[in-house]
Amino acid sequence: MSTTLPLFWHLSSANKKERLDASVKLVSALEHFQANFVPKDSPETSASEDEDEGGDSKTSDGLDALNAQDVSYSLRRLIRGLASPRESSRLGFAVALTELLTRLDSVTCSQIVQLVLDSSKTQGSMTGQEERDVLFARLFGLTSVIQSGLLLRDSTLPSSSTAASDLSSYKELLVQLIVLGEQKSWLRESAWWSICLAVDALKASQVSWKDDALDATIAAVYSESKSWTPEKVALTLNLQSSYPSRNWKKLLCPPFKHPELLSTANLNTIARILKESDADEDVEADLPKSGSWKPQVHFVWDMLLDQVLPRGERAAKASFPEFFRIVVDESLFSSTSSSERKFWGFQVFQKALPRVRADDMPMLFTKNFMRSWINHLSNSDRYLHKAARQVVTDIQTAVKNNPKIGFSLILQLTGVNGSRQFDKLTKTKTVESILTSMDDDGIQSYIAYLLKQVDEEHSAEADIQALNTRRAWIIDQLSALVRNGAIPKSDAWIQTILDWLVVHGLFIIAKKSDKAAVAALRSVPSPAFSEELRKNCRERLLACLADLTGQSTLIKDDSKASKVAAVASDGRFWVSRVLATVEQLEKDTKHVKALNEPDEEEAEQRRKTREIISRFKDAPDDRREEARGVELLLAATLLHAYCAGDEDEDGDADAEPLENCLDGASRLFPAEPPKKGKKGRMPTGEEKELPAPVDVLVDAAIGFLEKGTAYLRAAANQVFALLSGSVQASTIDLVLSQLERREPDELVADEEGDVEMGGSGDSGADEDDGDDADSASSSVEEGEDEDEDEDEDEEEDLELRRKIEEALRVNGIAAATGDSDEDSSDEEFMDDEQMLAIDKQLAAAFRARAAEKGNGKDVDAQREATHFKNRVLDLLDIFVKRQPTSPFAVRLVLPLVELIVATGPDERQLADKATGVLRNRLAKAKEVPTAPAAAEDAAKALEELHTLARKAASPDVLATLNQCSLYLSKVLLHADAGAGAADAVLAAYRESLHDFVGRKSSKLNTAFFDDFVKRHPQAAWELREDLVEGSAEALNGYRQVQCFHVLQTLANQLPALGERESEVLSFAPGVRKAVVETIAKACDAESTSFQPSNVKEILKAALVVVRQTKRVVRDSKELSSAWQPADWSELSTTLASSDRFKSSVGLPAMCKQIVRLLQDDKTGSKAVGKKSKEAAAAKRKAEDTAESGGEENATESGSGKKAKHKKARKVKAD
């Protein structure tokens, strides 16, 4: 028994794996004991067992007769342990008991049932918790008997004719479970679940008393109790499916009307039972005996769903639509149901969702369910909001597992019981997330469903407003399909949507064509689309193309696959495909007509545009990208002219960009290039002055950025990206000129000038006509606020009048009253002096009035200018990304730096974006320009950049200038311009170094030079003498220390410089002299420029330089000659005797460290054979520790000091 006792403790562990391991070990050990046990003829219970049982004799249970002592003890303890409240003991003991009873054939059902009942008796003195523990022990014990198979075991005991189970024990267990459920309502569901287990076991058993047991079960359930509960319904379902031949009409009627429990006639009764209402009453009334409400849905629902939604090939025993409508929708989700019952309803829906096929999906989304779901989903304060959100999650998961049901779900969410604005109404993205999980067939089915709603029959009595609202929603849904990047795209359905938007946005369908290639022509909407809807179609068309232009598509060629922007899978631009549809529809005059017929000039312009676009098909490979850029620009401009022509009053404003694009494209790609051998005519003066074709095209793209549409901005970015390889210096200057800072007055003047030019188009128009033109071109919002603006103007006019009257009154002139004055002949006129006196006051009043009216325009103009510059910076970012080796990339540095420096606090976003282009794109470019022209520009820019850096306004600006300087240095050092380029870099940094050490107000810092040394060590090495001289010429001690820090950084780069032994030897004495003299001056009693920490930094730098020199120089004599160990010993003595530094004992220690480094090289050849590699490694580690430890390492033990003195004497001996 001692081997099994420790295992009982682990049965109560909270860890499931630990409990199961303990159960396995315990059962295995008991099986072994039982196998070796030999039954006695006259069994007796041992005294020790009596003591374990509390002194009471247990011979009546008969366990010891046929079981080993450990087995009988374990059975009793496991049964008693079921009532333990400790941790998870009830679970662990129940599992072990069930497994043990399964493997033992030496116990009877009556024995175990009796043990369970005896150990779980309740007493009046028990507390509530103790009573609950005992009742749970009885439930778990009886369930273990059922699950182990002991209840219906048809075998006999070993060496005995006693059966393992009998009818009486079965009846006893059944009665005990029923009583247990009636005793406590919160145990009823679990007790009846165990009864269902017993019935299942009875069906599968072969005992001789099987029929009698069934009769006993039916009598106990139906005859002795007439009330109906969900548990009784569950048991009835089980019995009916197992024993359909029974007389169920006698047992079920009443309260049911049909012997088949799930027949339609019985569903209302079942609904009341499952809602825990009285089954015999027509009016719902809660049962008081139901006890406290439980959030978990009853197990009967799983059995019901198995009957109406069977898995596999089994046929359903009832109609699911009727069942769900009556039992769930009209019961749990009725308007009078409580929140608790609606919570059950949501759980039933979640259980049914994975079982329902796509065809049956509408049956789940019933009226009451959708109402409750939307209400609780739309407001986070609702009681069941989390439950409603969980339903959304389950729906999304179901669509991911089975994308084919996505379309059916969307139909229900946006259908009769749902809402077209489901996502907006519920503040979720349910429909959107379902669309992202659907396959291509589902998306096309959804599009067909949307388009079918457009063409639905419309009666004359129907509300035209509702029809327009539905069509507007359809347009939004079609646009969202294209614009949502998470939805898997297909050229077929995207083209269908674009064609539909083109047809209804730009054309009027006169006659339907069933065989038309464009699907939108196969039906004629009735009534026709309103002008507002057509405008909406055009706007959505451009919005879709904006997103498609910015997306990249994987194009697969024969050799490789590449991502190309703005194209379909066939490589054609989406804009070009739309234009092809427009051209096709223009030719089909039989079925459609254009919404606005173009005049002759517009038609000729469009024809010419298409003719030029057709040339690009034959463009040579080296100009293919350039040709595609021009094609996209022309196509985008032409399509915008189609879509925007209706809104713009002035047609010339629309035609001008297209004219410019045609001019640049025709000159860049002429129709007939000049043949070789023939002399072309000399260009005239006007042709010489024409801008380069690429400049004209880029200028048109820049003009797109000024517009407010995403379509034009996306087109401009893609066009510039394709043309970036063909830009010239004038093109870059054109782009950079857009970043020049202009005063708000100039911006307002430009806008007013544009308005005046637009208003002067009509001859004979007076000022009023100009005002009308202005108001016609104003925005909708301005028109709506017209009355409010007039009121404000009136108030401002009254204020101006008051100021003028005050100015006149001060000078003795009364304001006019407006009445006729009889004494008008006596009127006195002001002389010149009086006029001059009030001139200033009147001028101030008028200036204040003008400032008030112009203030709003200034703010708006400045804001628009900032947005425009942000878009221009996007072009520069594209250029640097696609053309990092272009010689014009260098020209971007200074203008962007000036933009950063000149921007104010209100343009912080602009400065940040420019900084990002310089630091993240340009400075981190892996490739740089190498052309001589780039080197010339870089040299000039570098010089000016360093000038700006010396006066940088902030550390952030200096950091940006530093990165730009490193980039320009890289360009110069890699350029094909010879040694002059490197000299320009050195000259710039040398001048900045002198400014850094010699000018107190210099804004430079050590990072400016450290980064240069680390990034370009070969070039920085040429500044070594300047650094040494700078350390001596520095205006204060702080700058001296920083110079030595840069020297330390330079010394650390020596391993990367290659063989430079002679240069290092000539460089070392200067460093030594500078360090020694600097520290010696610091030890002077009159000097106050250095603190011990400053001296420590200098010595640390010297230590690094000595170590790096030692690695480069192989000859110990030359090394010693260069560094002079005696000077460092003398410096150590000076520091130790200095009044200011004698307390910092770490400083002399660092000098001695340098001496040891230099002497180790002398004695190293003699000690090589005596020292192991491990000792050398330890010594290097000690040197590093001494270098970094500073003063802390100086406070050593006496033996350490003694060793240092010995080495000092050796130096003197040398």
Q: Would you summarize the structure shown here?
A:
The chain is an all-alpha fold. A two-stranded antiparallel sheet has the order 1-4. A two-stranded antiparallel sheet has the order 2-3.
Structural commentary:
This protein is mainly alpha-helical. The protein is built from 55 helices and 4 strands. The chain has a two-stranded antiparallel ribbon. Strands 2-3 form a two-stranded antiparallel ribbon. Helix 2 (16-35) packs parallel to helix 6 (89-103) and helix 42 runs antiparallel to helix 43 (955-974). The longest helix has 51 residues, at 832-882. Mean pLDDT is 81; it is low at 42-59, 278-290, 676-682, 752-792, 816-827, 1163-1176 and 1182-1214.
Features:
mainly alpha, 4 strands, 55 helices, 1214 residues, two-stranded antiparallel ribbon, two-stranded antiparallel sheet
Helix and strand layout, with pairings?
Elements: H1 5-10, H2 16-35, H3 47-52, H4 63-66, H5 69-81, H6 89-103, H7 109-119, H8 128-147, H9 167-183, H10 185-204, H11 210-223, H12 230-242, H13 248-252, H14 267-274, H15 300-308, H16 320-329, H17 339-352, H18 367-378, H19 385-401, H20 406-413, H21 422-426, H22 430-437, H23 440-454, H24 464-483, H25 491-506, E1 507-509, H26 531-550, E2 552-556, E3 561-565, H27 574-587, E4 592-594, H28 600-615, H29 624-644, H30 651-668, H31 685-689, H32 693-705, H33 710-723, H34 729-737, H35 744-759, H36 767-777, H37 780-784, H38 786-810, H39 832-882, H40 893-902, H41 908-922, H42 932-949, H43 955-974, H44 979-998, H45 1006-1015, H46 1017-1020, H47 1024-1033, H48 1037-1052, H49 1061-1082, H50 1092-1112, H51 1116-1123, H52 1125-1137, H53 1146-1167, H54 1173-1189, H55 1198-1213
Antiparallel strand pairs: 1-4, 2-3
Helix pairs in contact: 2-6, 5-6, 6-8, 7-8, 8-10, 9-10, 9-11, 10-12, 12-15, 14-16, 17-19, 18-19, 19-22, 20-22, 20-23, 23-24, 24-26, 25-26, 25-27, 26-33, 27-29, 28-29, 28-30, 29-30, 29-33, 30-32, 32-33, 32-34, 33-39, 35-36, 35-39, 38-39, 39-41, 40-41, 40-43, 41-43, 42-43, 42-44, 43-44, 43-45, ...
